[in-house]
Amino acid sequence: MSPHHSLTRLPLRIALGGSLAALIGLVAYRLRALDRGGALAAAGTGTLVFAAGGLSWSTSMIGFFAAASALTRLGGARKRALAVLGREASRPRTATQVLANGGVAAALAVLHLLRPGDRDYTLPYLAALAAASADTWATELGVLSPSPPRSLRTGRPVPPGTSGAVSLLGSLAMIGGATFVALLAPRSLPRWPVVTAGSLGAILDSLLGATLQARYHCSHCQCILETPQHDCPGRARRVSGLPGMTNDLVNALATLAAALFALLLATGQESRRRSASAGS
Ligand SMILES: [Zn+2]
């Protein structure tokens, strides 16, 4: 499809996508999967994605979101009992969290619409989504692991849900989350670059979580936190990581890395195909 063609039908695509995305945002808000801001951010992202890639792009986004919301609810009682690191389990997702997971995908939708260099951005889009899915599955399922995860930094067992900690269950869930998005990809596309780029993004997420992500310590309740705010009169101080390097920013960087990696894979394939056809 030429950019001209897609742009002439843009108002129709925005109207259709906007209605679909608003409906899904409303349902997610009613189900308490998203808060008000989260629902608005999701509706905006969904509209862009539909305008750019139609149903084939939207299917993978909706599938990712539905599976992630379902997994968040899984083992709710156990997650509440853990109440890891000041994060409340199964709380509706905010706009910041939605954009951390879907912002890069939304930006790629805009690129796909404008088509600089007449490039197809489907593969990087799917890779960004696969990385977000891999990280969400790893977190939501990994937290239910029977054995505690180990920190990538120290190798020692740490509380479930700690950023930058890995378990066998979490690692399998990570690959599962990336594969799930790859299976929802259009049939014309190879699946392995989506799984590979998505998994690499999620691995980078864990590495950044173990190293550069900010961690706080509260001397009042003697707990390690990912955000300074928590239900306690004590004040938490940053003990490691970079200021402003939140879990959300780490998620966004991981999806960006996955998209760039998929772009590299696609470019490599393209040039191999070109040299093969030039040689024949
Ligand atoms: Zn405290």
Automatic annotation (TrEMBL):
It holds the Pfam family DUF92. Signal peptide: none annotated. GO terms for cellular component: membrane. Keywords: Membrane, Transmembrane, Transmembrane helix. Its main location: membrane. It is a multi-pass membrane protein. Belongs to the TMEM19 family. This is DUF92 domain-containing protein. It comes from Thermomicrobium roseum.
